[in-house]
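User: quick one, sequence for these tokens?
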């Protein structure tokens, strides 16, 4: 990357209030909290909206934000009551009320219901159907919301100790009911929220300009500095978004590189250099290989075949050769740092596959080798190289014949959601800092990966973990769930990210910028 230290010659000096420019490789799909669950959207919106609860740095547990207090009012953990703080206002000056909170939740449920109705209606043309990708699956336990004076009461359909984590995330973002339609996604690129920042301007997939909200009333001390976010997308010439981010950093065009840099660039960064600041931590995002059970005629419908595919993965080689040791090999869907983390995939399959033995397993089961299947993947600086290495590993000793299939992100996600892939590689990031986020949605009824697999035993264990209010006591339950997941092998972990943020030497606050909660604390950034 060459002139990574060129920051000493760039940018304003001292204490002026020129914007801090942050570069990211993930652009939001929407700035409407009822419309999106992608990481980039949640990161941006966590700065623009308030929820009743939030996640404070270092604890990553729900704490009051727009609420004065929140808590379950019954021993069954099915009634959750919050008292809204008085005097809060939206960015347009209108006072926030409990009715706005109720509307914000009801709206998500209503849009989800509309999408389901129209999807099932043969009289509506496919192109005219309501397309919805909001966070309704995270509200699967929510039955009704009602207002009681200054209180908002959530009534749940079943015991759910994780509900406060949902409330604290962007799913619980409070919108002005006079500015947002109940059954329509807001698409004007504007925001009426009450978060630490106001959205001054927004150009989808290009940039977002944020300025401090002078009316913000919450638990955080907001920085005096405005923020400009630059979004980097793959170039028309095939250059990856990661390479373009690295180029912008190299040229001194950004103050903070908070997107994914290419592995070879990351490997060259010297954390002891005085020319820039570096903050490295264990991230919560994971990379998985998903194997579908519902593609008619696919060899992946057979558990034995999926187990052999899982056993052929050499994670150490992927982390070392492709990712240049910028990730950690992962042997559980629950990554390091979360309750319930273990090594069930290592315990069952090891990490030094014997292709001859695995070939014998399939031949004994009556298969004529090689077995053919398609492995899909999408964007990323090292994703081509990673997919090719995994292809080589799976084709060892003529066991599989893999056809790689690349799709742009815009078409990859709809195809994934429509269960069109028999196997694919994808990242998964936590919706909230609890192991349930790697369990309920991936292995439970939500089936976010569209594997088509369902297990009464796993679902029963999920319900048991949902009923435990002391989240530290769920360790054994989550370990059991993921031991079963390893045996079924519909979702196979590959690696866990190492989170790296690089910034100009005069930028502070990197250590609090992001944790495992999905909150992007841009207000923590300041300039010396």
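Assistant:
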């Amino acid at each position: 990357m060459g002139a990574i230290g060129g920051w000493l010659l760039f940018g304003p000096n001292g204490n002026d209030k020129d914007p801090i420019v942050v570069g990211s490789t993930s652009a939001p799909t929407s700035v409407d909290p009822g419309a999106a669950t992608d990481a980039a959207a949640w990161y941006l919106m966590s700065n623009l909206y308030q929820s009743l609860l939030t996640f404070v740095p270092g604890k990553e547990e729900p704490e009051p934000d727009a609420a004065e207090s929140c808590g379950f009012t019954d021993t069954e953990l099915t009634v959750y009551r919050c008292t809204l703080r008085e005097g809060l206002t939206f960015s347009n000056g209108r006072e926030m009320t409990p009715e706005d909170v109720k509307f914000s939740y009801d709206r998500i449920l209503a849009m989800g219901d509309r999408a389901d109705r129209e999807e099932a209606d043969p009289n509506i043309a496919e192109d005219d159907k309501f397309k919805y990708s909001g966070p309704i699956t995270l509200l699967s336990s929510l039955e009704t919301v009602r207002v009681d004076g200054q209180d908002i009461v959530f009534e749940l359909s079943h015991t759910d100790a994780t509900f406060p984590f949902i409330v604290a995330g962007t799913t619980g973002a409070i919108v002005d009911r006079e500015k947002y339609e109940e059954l329509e996604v807001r698409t004007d690129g504007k925001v009426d929220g009450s978060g630490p920042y106001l959205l001054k301007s927004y150009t989808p997939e290009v940039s977002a300009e944020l300025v401090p909200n002078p009316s913000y009333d919450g638990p955080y001390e907001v920085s005096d500095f405005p923020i400009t976010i630059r979004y980097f997308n793959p170039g028309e010439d095939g250059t990856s978004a990661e390479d373009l981010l690295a180029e912008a950093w190299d040229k001194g065009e950004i103050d903070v590189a908070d997107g994914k840099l290419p592995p070879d660039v990351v490997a060259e960064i010297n954390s002891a250099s005085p020319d820039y600041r570096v903050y490295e931590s264990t991230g919560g995002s994971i990379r998985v290989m998903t194997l579908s059970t519902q593609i008619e005629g696919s060899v992946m419908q057979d558990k034995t075949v999926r187990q052999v595919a899982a056993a052929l993965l050499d994670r150490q080689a992927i982390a070392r050769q492709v990712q240049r040791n910028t990730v950690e090999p992962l042997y559980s869907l629950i990554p390091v740092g979360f309750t319930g983390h273990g090594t069930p995939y290592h315990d069952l399959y090891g990490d030094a596959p014997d292709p001859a033995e695995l070939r014998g397993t399939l031949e004994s089961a009556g298969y004529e080798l090689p077995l053919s299947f398609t492995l899909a993947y999408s964007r990323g600086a090292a994703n081509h190289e990673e997919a090719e290495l995994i292809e080589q590993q799976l084709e060892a000793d003529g066991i599989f014949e893999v056809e790689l299939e690349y799709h742009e992100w815009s078409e990859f996600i709809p195809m994934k959601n429509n269960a069109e892939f028999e196997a694919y590689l994808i990242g998964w990031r936590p919706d909230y800092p609890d192991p349930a986020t790697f369990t309920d949605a991936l292995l439970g009824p939500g089936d976010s990966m569209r594997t088509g697999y369902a297990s009464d035993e796993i679902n029963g264990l999920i319900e048991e973990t949902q009923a435990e209010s002391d989240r530290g006591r769920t360790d054994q339950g989550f370990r059991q769930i993921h031991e079963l997941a390893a045996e079924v092998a519909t979702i196979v972990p590959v690696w866990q990210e190492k989170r790296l943020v690089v910034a100009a030497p005069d930028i502070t606050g990197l250590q609090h910028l992001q944790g495992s909660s999905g909150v992007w604390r841009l207000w923590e950034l300041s300039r010396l």
